Amino acid sequence: MATAPGLRPYLPADAATLAALFRASVEELAAEDYDADQREAWASAADDEAAFASRLAGELTIVALLGGDVAGFASLKDNAIFDMLYVRPDLAGQGVGATLADAIEKLAAARGTKKLTVEASDSARDFFAARGYVAQSRNTVTIAGEWLGNTTMTKELAAPAAGGLQ
């Protein structure tokens, strides 16, 4: 990727765009790891846009922009859980997810978090492992009547340097 994405906080006006990006990301990027029924159940979390918007607003959610267009988003829940990380399918593997993950990790560390936890989908497990997250347990979750596997992973965060963020 030639230029790194810009980051900004989530705005309520982003809800419809992020819901569509979430659905597209699940449907396209998780196809190798989950069947069609599992992906549809997972993507259905964005069907109730008001509830999805409330989830985004209730967490520390950041949005990545490339050329003024939304490229992805990530959220931090309770300063300890890396809750969501989704990238537009056509931009997967181009650094958008890494930029968002870097920002979430820095924000969590700046807020005093010593260990970050993520429930990584099978599609995201290798991405998080490459960033230093260590698998703790294998899980099966039920979403909209479908069983989906994921892995609880944790990463120890370095304390922020004296004087604030770098």
Give a short synopsis of this structure:
Helix content is 32%, strand content 33%. The chain has helices at residues 15-29, 36-43, 49-57, 96-110, 125-130; strands at 6-9, 60-66, 69-77, 81-87, 115-121, 134-143, 146-156.
Write up what this structure looks like:
This protein is α+β, with helices and mostly antiparallel strands and 166 residues long. The protein has a domain at 6-112: Aminopeptidase (3-Layer(aba) Sandwich), CATH 3.40.630. The chain has 5 helices and 7 strands. Strands 1-2-3-4-5-7-6 form a 7-stranded mixed sheet, sandwiched between helices. A hairpin with a 3-residue loop joins strand 3 and strand 4. Helix 1 (15-29) runs antiparallel to helix 2 (36-43). The radius of gyration is 15 Å and the shape is globular. It starts with 5 loop residues before the first strand and ends in a 10-residue tail after the last strand.
CATH architecture of the domain at 6-112: 3-Layer(aba) Sandwich
Bin the strand percentage: 25-35%
CATH domain fold name of the domain at 6-112: Aminopeptidase
Largest sheet: 7 strands, mixed
Question: How would you spell out the order of helices and strands?
Answer: EHHHEEEHEHEE
β-strand number = 7
Helix tally equals 5
Please give the alpha-carbon distance between the first and last residues.
23 Å
The chain-level mean pLDDT equals 94
What global shape is seen? Answer: globular
- Any low-confidence stretches, pLDDT <50, length ≥5? none
- The largest beta-sheet arranges its strands as 1-2-3-4-5-7-6
- Nearest-angstrom radius of gyration? 15 Å
Instruction: Write down the CATH class of the domain at 6-112.
Output: Alpha Beta
Would you identify the CATH H-level superfamily of the domain at 6-112? Gcn5-related N-acetyltransferase (GNAT)
